[in-house]
Design a protein that fits this description.
- The complex is a heterodimer of chains A (about 120) and B (about 110).
- Chain A is mainly beta.
- Helices cover about 0% and strands about 50% of the residues of chain A.
- Chain B is mainly beta and about 110 residues long.
- In chain B, about 0% of the residues lie in helices and about 55% in strands.
- In chain B, the strands form 2 sheets. In chain B, strands 2, 4, 5, 9, 10 and 11 form a 6-stranded mixed sheet that branches. In chain B, strands 1-3-8-7-6 form a 5-stranded antiparallel sheet, with no helix packed on it.
- Chain B is globular, with a radius of gyration of 13 Å.
- Classes of the chains: A mainly beta (about 120), B mainly beta (about 110).
- Chains A and B meet through strand 5, strand 9 and strand 10 of A and strand 4, strand 5, strand 9 and strand 10 of B.
Chain lengths: ~120, ~110
């Protein structure tokens, strides 16, 4: 079956703009989490959605938001982009939140560059 | 405050030798640990996990050891192969079922 699909793969935006990233989880998976990876910071948790509800949120400003649709696809939005938002944004899907019937599977990520 | 720490940002090992990657955690409530491997331009892929009821889990060349009293886990790769060169992340689920990652260790296996 298809893996986690993230679009677009690469994106260049200017400061002050907003951006929307998309994630389609593995078929049957209902939990989607988002992470930001920057050099030296590892993988920072952004938020997690399950059944269209945000279950958890990491320590990021309100400029970062997300949502999940009834088909489990998820989007994250970053408004008023800053240079420091340049990062690889990763989406992970799992059957259910937390440890359970399977570990989280990651997409290839969206590389966002803010200039 | 990092709850999961990987203190070695990089590790270089000769092909055929053992690679040992270390990870420390601070929250004694963590009870399930995972290792992920990440190649450049790809998302992390799950490698191996261990529950706190065990102190060792083995899968082929990969073995994870857990020392609960020291809040320490390690990943052993034997024998190491050049294809193992990647960034390795340890992770754990916290009480809110959020997956918390360490900062990663870049492993370089030299032929």
């Amino acid at each position: 079956k298809a893996g986690v699909t993230q679009t677009p793969r690469y994106l260049i935006k200017t400061r002050g703009q907003q951006v929307t990233l998309s994630c389609s989880p593995i078929s049957g998976h209902r939990s989607v989490s988002w992470y930001q990876q920057t050099p030296g910071q590892g993988l920072q948790f952004l938020f997690e959605y399950f059944s269209e509800t945000q279950r958890n949120k990491g320590n990021f400003p309100g400029r970062f938001s997300g949502r999940q649709f009834s088909n489990s696809r998820s989007e994250m939005n970053v408004s008023t982009l800053e240079l420091g938002d340049s990062a690889l944004y990763l989406c992970a899907s799992s059957f259910q939140p937390g440890q359970g019937l399977g570990e989280a599977f990651f997409g290839q990520g969206t590389r966002l560059t803010v200039v | 405050d990092q709850q999961v720490k990987q203190n070695s940002p990089s590790l270089s090992v000769q092909e055929g030798r053992i690679s040992i990657l270390n990870c420390d955690y601070t929250n004694s409530m963590f009870d399930y640990f995972l290792w992920y491997k990440k190649y450049p331009a790809e998302g992390p892929t799950f490698l191996i996990s261990i529950s706190s009821i065990k102190d060792k889990n083995e899968d082929g060349r990969f073995t994870v050891f857990l020392n609960k009293s020291a809040k320490h886990l390690s990943l052993h790769i034997v024998p190491s192969q050049p294809g193992d060169s990647a960034v390795y992340f340890c992770a754990s689920y916290n009480a809110g079922n959020m997956l918390t990652f360490g900062g990663g260790t870049r492993l370089m296996v030299k032929p």
